[in-house]
Structure prediction request, 694 residues.
Amino acid sequence: MIRSSVLVSGDPLSLSRGAEATKLAIEAELSFYGLEDEVQVGYTGRVSRTDLLPVVVVYPEGTVYGPVTPETGATIVEEHLYKGRPVEHLQAPVEVATEGIEATGPEGGALSGQKRVVLRRAGSIDPYSIEEYIAEDGYFALGTALTEMTSDQVLQEVKDAGLQGRGGAGFPTGLKWSFVAQQPQEQTRYIVCNADESEPGTFKDRLIIEGDPHSLLEGMALAGYAVGANEGWIYIRGEYAMARDILARAISQAEEMNLLGNDILGSGFSFHVHLHSGAGAYVCGEETALLESLEGKRGVPRIRPPYPTVRGFRGQPTVVNNVETLANVAPIILNGADWFRSIGTESSPGTKVYTMLGNVNVTGLVETPMGTTLREIIDIYGGGMRDGKAFKAAQTGGSSGTIIPADLLDVPMDFASMRDAGAGLGSGALLVCDEDTDIIDLAYVLVRFFMVESCGKCTPCRAGNAQMLEALDRLRKGRAKRADLERLEEIATYIQSASFCGLGQAAPVPILTGLKFFREEFEARLQD
Amino acid sequence: MVEVLAATDKIIDAHGTDREALVEILREVNDEGGHLTKEHLQRIAERTNLPLSEVYSVASFYTMISLEPLGRHVIRLCQDAPCHVAGGREVWEAIEQELGVPFGKTTLDGQWSLLTTSCIGACAVGPVMMVDDDIFGNLTPDKVREIIARYRQDDLARGDAQGGAA
Prediction:
């Protein structure tokens, strides 16, 4: 199945400059990385700017590189097609992309028909250029808010839009903001962006940052204006080095243009954004553990209440929002709450960014209106099941997400509908498993993850996951007795009800849903 | 040792001695030398005015900070569900077989440390591993053998005698 298409300019001038060698080098590098079946390579015709020849265009993104030598062609394959990072310094000026290059990508475009709000600019603008962001309505929402709206109006617009937190819990964003805005005036307020995206299978926030960093910064500044905060912190996971660099550059560009910093655009409102890297710990995605880590401590969760909205970073009222949530704010201010509500479902307006993974033909990122079904996502955007195999199960929402059977393929995916069906939307990771997948084995791998990543603060999570892993190990080796299975279920229930933090409570979810929907597979592995 | 601590001081100077900077300081000092020694921890504790036990406690919490020396190359294989579904177990076995040590260990010649990691956010090309700072995806048993061979060759080409021992 083809997921990308690479076109090399094949006009006589390009050929005289070694376009053929470039194409061969690209093909060789693709086969080194095992991508020959996923990426098709071809020639394209006319290109307007001769000084950039030969050019290479990568679809579906439409990224144009030029001029490309065999060496830089290999770099483009490794960085862009293999690692998913467009190579900034090799790209041609953007106007070339719109002039005279024929888009002869995969027929129909495998990923057409998406509704892009959060990702509307990702891949089409240069993430290192604030000018390109501004040219596509960037910072227009902030400018409008600061000059024409009160902070209450901004908050109200987000409330009216019905935006819900995209980190997994789906808490109403406007409501969270209003809790902070209500705190006593003398307290310093903070906006903290949770970019500690460590839920396995989830990398949407990384691609939002790498593709469109200013959309996050603008959202943070708007949040700051709405709740009366003058400082924002982005806690980014330690593994995301490139995303961090892009953000650091974006922050300094925005400060130079006075779109961040003191007295933004002469409005009297000041907002400073700081970056803070994590150092590897899943639990830091939990908001209070994140705040501990941000204060230079072990990332161990705090007791709630008090919630961060009352006592958060440095003990002050703090909004903690996910990257995708904040990236939705500027479009809402720009287009209004009614526009936002026209997308998605009644209970969950807007779009959702999913990561499609596992045994589908096309893996990667897709943004669709809330309420799209899993079947639609697999068939339309995922290009169907790989090798024509049958769908068996999907895990929705990352490793702490629900394992669901084929019966739930047609549930509209929004927070409420999924909850009603006994499933969860979570972070938006969709791990699709075909008929060959061994549910017990999958459960074992999932529980091993939680055993490794448990922060150790509370016993149910620290000891419970280790005990579940032992039971699952016996099950997968065919050495378990009925008592082991009962014990597994019992411990899972305890972990869910007695763990200290949300992550611990979510850890047994795949086991409990796996048992609910695939019990016969567990039973079949019993010794007696 | 004096130079080592000079580098540590430089990192602390860049971040300031406020407690909030501790995790970032530990991480950067770690990246400088591959792991943290007792001397590093002592200097950081002195400069940030924190008890050594507290600095050690924080350092031991995070997986990107190591309190043990690691091999010349460090392989970190993702062992989470999306990579597992894509064939991670076969890759795991191939790496162990190729290097002759189990995960969690360093080869006797000090060339390779085998570690597992939690999700590194490259799931669309799973199974995924990191070799030092580089990410490799769409792994198969054949491909990991090829990648390891590439590193061995590069080490040899750089005239590193130890590379040949592996």
User: Anything to note?
Assistant: The domain at 439-524 of chain A is CATH 1.20.1440.230 (de novo design (two linked rop proteins)). Chain A has a mean pLDDT of 90. The CA atoms of residues 159 and 278 of chain A lie 31 Å apart. Chain A has four domains: 4-98, 130-340, 351-434, 439-524.
